[in-house]
Amino acid sequence: MSKFKMKKNKDKYVSAYCNCSKILKKFHSLIYEAEELYKKSDAIIDTKVVEAIYIATESLERAFELGGQGEETENNAYKMLDKSECGNTCDKNSTECKELDTKAQEMFSLESDYLTHALNSLKDAQKDIQISMVERKIGYKLRDQYKKCIHSKKSTSD
User: Fold this and answer.
1) Buried b / exposed e across 136-149, counting CB within 10 Å, b at 16+?
2) Over the stretch 25-84, which tens digit does the pLDDT of each residue have?
3) Model pTM above 0.90
4) Residue 11 and which of 28, 59, 63, 104 are 20 to 30 A apart at CA?
5) What SS3 state is found at 90?
6) Residues 104, 106, 109: CA angle, nearest 5 degrees
């Protein structure tokens, strides 16, 4: 179709080229707006989300360290009590005491499992976000190539 071929539109004759030009102009305007929104999204992800995940990961790792120190301190306290004169007067071997201790250890183990899972999930999320950002950059490069292709085809088809 020649760019000067005319078509009827609401009782007015308008060249097909002009309509195409307006549509392409609007298309490029919308693509530009989308890219700006993507950039804002990227900035939020790059700064706030990644930073929050990093802080949460660091906090969980620190909590594990402190939890380990707390467990070690508790074990030392029990060892000290066992070695003291008072330790001999306490009945730690009763069934009731053993059951309570076993249940407490199970709860601590579950807590540790959930924290480990949360930490691993955060690390996976951080990796996924980094991968998505790489993919987004590749998408931008391909989109730029697409734009160049459109402009080169447009200029050669004129």
Assistant:
1) eeeeeeeeeeeeee
2) 888 888 888 888 888 887 887 777 777 888 888 888 888 888 888 888 887 777 777 776
3) no
4) 28
5) coil
6) 110
